[in-house]
Amino acid sequence: MEVMTAISGTIDAVMEQEEYQLPAGEVVEKFERRLKYANQELNPSIGNYERVKNVAELYRLSGLIYLQRAARGAFSSNPAVKELVDAAYNIIKRMESCGNTFPIFIIGCEARSDERRAEILRILRTTRSVLGSMNINRVHEFIERFWAQEDLDVEQTIEYTTKVTSVLAAGSWGSAELDGVYKDRSGPIAL
Fold it and tell me: Would you list the domain boundaries of the chain?
């Protein structure tokens, strides 16, 4: 729960930064600490413990990736971002499926190589075959739109949050998307 609260708080902080043209500050640092040092207490006796542990870690990593990219304005080439993305892909490679759309979206947007994009497409395909989820189809579309924007923005002149907003705004969007982490608000969405 602590990770979800920190992710939600980070999204709120990013939206306030954009609205009021504020630099990243103490609030962002607070959420970064919470995500970095989150103690995710999981009961080892629950079924699918390894899968639950992997999903919990994907949420933590995707929250940190989003914080670095959106709140701090870090580029995908930033060493801190690369380290987080590498750790996330190491987990995704071990998973058969993942119906948790927030981490898949955030991590999928960071796929720069054909190998990583193929890995995201694989997990989306297997998740769709297991769950048949419409949310997975939407996330798949969003990720591919993001990749198209990344491929066209060779000089990296468009901000991450602008790309995310345009990708999400271009699709049909409901407040239940991305596992409810996104809070439905009027106006443009900054995830």
Answer: 2-180
